[in-house]
Amino acid sequence: MSEGAILSAPGTPCWVSLMVHRLDTTEDFYRGLFGWVFEEGPRALGPYRLARLDGGQVAGIGAMAPDRRLPVDWTPYLATDDADAASELVRCCGGTVGVGPLDADAAGRKAICSDPAGAVFGLWQPRRHTGVERHGRPGTPVWNDLLVAEPTMVAKFYELVFGYDVRAEGDVATLYVQGRPVASICGADEEVLREAGPRWTTHFEVADVDAAVTRAEELGGRRVREPHDTPAGRMAEVADLEGARFTVVRSPR
Fold first, then answer.
1. Which of 16-25, 61-70, 87-96 has the lowest mean pLDDT?
2. 3-state class (DSSP) for residue 18
3. Which of 15, 225, 232, 253 is the most exposed place for a label (fewest CB within 10 A)?
4. What is the CA radius of gyration of the chain?
5. Which is nearest to 197 in space by CA: 97, 96, 95, 119?
6. Is there a shared CATH topology between the 3-126 domain and the 141-250 domain?
């Protein structure tokens, strides 16, 4: 099976996107951190830029309407064959559809939703744009996890909507598509959730975690969690100029 076919399998995280107030300065931050270059993207919701790495699309950054003061967070988009049907399932299973479904020009059809815990995610029905085109190299998204108070309860919502095979161990529920782990839902304590709420977190691959954290600070961001070693590799959490949090990780080789 091709990589594109795997990415478009329903439930697979296929894209990550960020809506910000200052598009140009945010571009500068991620260009300096990951080496991304930008081009104009679909304008269904206003100005939107596609980030490219080695010629392939890896992420999107859009401008939030000036009168909207929403939290600035990276949002994963989960693939679907039918954004309208998936949106209806989200509603029926206790979630909320905040935007859409609507067409993103000829690229695809999308919706922005939240699960019963309040964490925001997107739905993406691909047409011309099938998702992330570069993988496993510095500057690319490599994983997404969800922080919530009750992972088992929230995992049931995602299982019902997307048909995941959910495998729970302790306070972590891993979501599988076609036998492949694609995301995880992790239990978080009250202090963590009080600070930023239930949320999806995107992990970006880097060559050197410690150097990436230092570079993020030089570009005006801040470190949220110090570099540390885990079974999934060395990682740290940082925030960009507008406070969007993400994880930088050096995966085991």
1. 61-70
2. strand
3. 253
4. 17
5. 119
6. yes
CATH code, residues 141-250: 3.10.180.10
Task: With beta carbons less than 8 A apart as the criterion, state whether 77 and 111 touch.
Answer: no
Strand pairing class (165-169; 141-148): unpaired
Q: In which band, very low, low, confident or very high, does the pLDDT at 197 lie, cut at 50, 70 and 90?
A: confident
Helices 83-92 and 151-162 cross at an angle (nearest 10°) of: 140
Task: Find, among 125, 85, 122, the residue nearest to 107 by Cα.
Answer: 125
Domain positions in the chain: 3-126, 141-250
Q: Is the pLDDT of residue 235 over 60?
A: yes
Closest to 15 measured CA to CA, from 145, 96, 108, 122? 122
Exposure of 61 by Cβ count < 10 A (0-12 exposed, 13-18 middle, 19+ buried)? buried
Give the pLDDT of residue 41: 85
In this structure, are residues 75 and 120 in contact, taking their beta carbons and an 8 Å threshold?
A: yes
CATH topology of domain 3-126: 2,3-Dihydroxybiphenyl 1,2-Dioxygenase; domain 1 (3.10.180)
Q: Cis (ω within 30 of 0) for the bond into 141?
A: no
**Tens digit of pLDDT for each residue in 13-62?**
999 999 999 999 999 999 999 999 999 987 766 799 999 999 999 999 99
